[in-house]
Amino acid sequence: MAGFLLRPGFGVVGDDLRIDALWRLHDSGPCFPGRRIKCQEYILWRRVAGGLTRERQNKLLAGEFDRIRSGNAPAELVRLAGSLELIPHETKAELVSGFIDVAVTLARAKRHCAPYFVALGLLLNRTPLYAGPETVVSPDLVEQTYSAFRGFDWADPELLELQTLFLRAARVVGDRSLDVPLPLRRLIAAKMEKSGALPLRTAKIRGFVPVGRSDRASLYDEPLPPGLILGAGRDNGGG
């Protein structure tokens, strides 16, 4: 409940205090530890990641890195790692390489790999939700990711999340140091359109399109669960 109500954890007066209170719970640990509780904890931190400082994001990831490196991390931990926009570039690069390897293995085996695609899309995103452009990783990592998945059928229902991945990873932002090279963007856009993506969507890869409200909303995480309705309030993105 806290994760839903605080999401994304910044933008409203008092969010810093609320995040501080949550972090004290992180330090003390859950009263009833277990697999299901740990899963919910991953979801909580993913939803409020925008309110965490760089130091807290690094600490959060450091405690889970061995599990991630093993290739057997639960889906919610994988998605949490992707949402940490303030972690160092070298850490993001390691996560990208590791997630590519696991996702390729799963895709070849026709197994569920969407959480890895979601995480990769966030790690490679050209337009972060809450961090600045200095946190955006090198376009070379986008090329590495495309090379790994270009041979797959992006129209396969299990691989549809690849399209969202590259919409984020190859989007034009008008900064030559961040934009993916034009030849690669053309390849990605053509691959997506061949897989059923509408030209209206790939236009964001072929040329500059200002970031809209819906683009930001798509990064806030999944919608509220059925039956949970928030009352009227200021629509400024905080809790």
Helix percentage: 40-55%
Please indicate the percent range of residues in DSSP E strands (runs of 2 or more): under 5%
From the helix content, strand content and strand pairing, which structural class follows? mainly alpha
The number of E-state strands comes to: 0
Unreliable spans are: 232-239
Number of domains: 1
Gyration radius (Cα, Å) is 18 Å
Q: Separation of termini? A: 11 Å
Number of alpha- plus pi-helical segments = 13
Mean pLDDT over the residues: 90
Shape descriptor reads globular
Main β-sheet: number of strands, strand sense, barrel status? none
Order of helices and strands: HHHHHHHHHHHHH
Structure description:
This protein is mainly α and 239 residues long. The chain has one domain (19-24, 34-217). It contains 13 helices and no strands. The chain has helices at residues 2-6, 15-28, 35-47, 54-62, 65-69, 75-83, 89-108, 114-123, 139-149, 161-169, 182-194, 199-206, 213-217. Helix 6 packs parallel to helix 8 (114-123). It is globular. The relative contact order is 0.12.
Kindly summarize this structure in a few lines.
The protein is mostly helical and 239 residues long.
Labels describing this entry:
239 residues; 13 helices; globular; mainly alpha
What is the secondary structure topology, with strand pairs?
Layout: H1 2-6, H2 15-28, H3 35-47, H4 54-62, H5 65-69, H6 75-83, H7 89-108, H8 114-123, H9 139-149, H10 161-169, H11 182-194, H12 199-206, H13 213-217
